[in-house]
């Protein structure tokens, strides 16, 4: 079993406020792509499925578009 590839667009920009302080803005998944970060293939059993279980793909989705602002100070 092989999963399909996934690509996302992330960005980061920063500004140095002073010699010891900076601010940064990070953006993740700018295209807001709906895909999986990782896929697993194994047997599992949900309610109503056969007692022996079913081989299936289980996935962890990538996070939707998000932003992060950080302020860093060095002492």
Mind sketching the topology for me?
Blueprint: E1 11-18, E2 21-28, E3 36-44, E4 54-61, E5 66-73
Antiparallel strand pairs: 1-2, 2-5, 3-4
Provide the helix percentage. Answer: under 10%
Strand fraction: over 45%
Specify the number of helices. 0
DSSP strand count? 5
Order of helices and strands: EEEEE
Structural class designation:
mainly beta
Strand sequence of the main sheet, in spatial order? Answer: 1-2-5
Distance between the termini: 51 Å
How many domains is the backbone divided into?
1
Overall 3D shape: elongated
Kindly provide the radius of gyration, computed on alpha-carbon positions and rounded to a whole number of angstroms: 20 Å
Averaging pLDDT over every residue, what do you get?
A: 93
Largest sheet: 3 strands, antiparallel
Low-pLDDT runs of 5+ residues are none
Q: What can be said about this structure in brief?
A:
This protein has 75 residues and is an all-beta fold. It has strands spanning 11-18, 21-28, 36-44, 54-61, 66-73. It has one domain.
What does this structure look like?
The chain has strands at residues 11-18, 21-28, 36-44, 54-61, 66-73. The protein is an all-beta fold and 75 residues long. The protein has one domain (11-73). The radius of gyration is 20 Å and the shape is elongated.
Pick out its properties.
75 residues, mainly beta, three-stranded antiparallel beta sheet, two-stranded antiparallel ribbon, 5 strands, 0% helix
């Amino acid at each position: 079993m092989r999963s399909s590839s996934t690509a996302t667009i992330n960005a980061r920009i920063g500004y140095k406020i002073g010699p010891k302080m900076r601010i940064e803005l990070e953006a993740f998944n700018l295209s807001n792509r709906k895909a999986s970060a990782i896929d697993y293939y194994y047997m599992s059993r949900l309610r109503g499925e056969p007692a022996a279980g079913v081989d299936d793909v289980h996935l962890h989705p990538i996070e939707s578009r998000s932003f992060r602002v950080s302020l860093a100070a060095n002492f």
